[in-house]
Amino acid sequence: MKKTLFLLLSCMAILLFSCGKVTVPGGGEGSVDTITDGAASEPVLELLPFDEPMLLTFSSGAGAWRTELVLLPDGSFEGHFFDGEMGDRDEEKYPYGTRYVCNFVGSFYNITKISDTSYSLQIKNLECEKAEGEEWIEEGVRFVSSIPYGMEGKDFVFYTPDAPYAELPEYVQLWDYRYFAHDERPEKLGLYSLYSTTGANAFFSQEAS
Predict the structure, then answer these.
(1) d(CA 143, CA 34)
(2) Alpha carbon 115 to chain centroid distance?
(3) What is the distance between the terminal CA atoms of the chain, rounded to a whole angstrom?
(4) Residue 178 CB partners (closer than 8 Å, separation 6+)
(5) Pairing outcome for strands 141-145 and 98-115
(6) pTM of the predicted structure, to 2 decimals
(7) Can you say how many angstroms the Cα of residue 130 is from the centroid of all Cα atoms in its chain?
């Protein structure tokens, strides 16, 4: 697992930092000088409660789309979104369909502990490799640059595996495709989760093997 995450980070770094980036409008902006506590007397933290790069995934558990995010304890991240549309094709120009893609980098800040198992945080910056709508064709596939689905808005909540399942927001539970087939829910989440309060979208870490 460690080796897989290291290779993933290395490949993303080579890809993402080899070209210019486009700031996503509305993706959240901030600087160290403007960081504030926000609520109560909880201090702003420097690190999230884990030690190594973490792969988080936002998907329906089926279908051709997925957003993958590699999150570091300091709040920085790299990611990739893709969505395949095999039916959207041109027999001569791109017979193998269309793929909507986005490589992106960014960071969170204002990391604040709000309970024993949850932390609020905000997107400080989010930059995409290519401008939205840019198109190109490679090996019979039309690629269209998109925005990273799941990263909408600025405010997020990070949940630890010990988070009580019954207390999680409705959409965190709905995006947890482990339980699509039945109604039973565990006592605790059992995974790390990153939840966008604006988009009501939830990323999840991989299950332990």
Answers:
(1) 38
(2) 22
(3) 9
(4) 61, 207
(5) parallel
(6) 0.79
(7) 17
Measured distance CA(58)–CA(23) in Å, rounded = 21
Strand partners, 126: 106
Q: Positive or negative CA dihedral for 62, 149, 187, 167?
A: negative
User: Residues 148-183: pLDDT tens digits?
Assistant: 999 999 999 999 999 999 999 999 999 998 876 666
User: Which residue(s) pair with 100 in the sheet?
Assistant: 83, 144
What was the pLDDT predicted at 155?
97
Report the C-alpha gap between 171 and 158 in whole angstroms.
Answer: 14
Q: CA nearest 19: which of 94, 130, 93?
A: 130
Segment (H or E) for 1: none
Q: What is the DSSP string of 79-120?
A: EEEEEEETTS-BTTTBTT-EEEEEEEEEEEEEEEEEETTEEE
Answer whether 69's CB lies under 8 Å from 8's CB: no
8 Å CB contact between 53 and 71 = yes
Tell me which residue of 72, 161, 81, 148 sits closest to 111, measured CA to CA.
72
Residue 60 burial class via C-beta count within 10 angstroms: exposed 0-12, middle 13-18, buried 19 and up: exposed
Could you tell me which of 121, 105, 106 has the C-alpha nearest to residue 47? 121
* Residue in the structure block whose two tokens are 């201090």: 43
* DSSP label of 53: -
Residue 208: DSSP 8-state: P
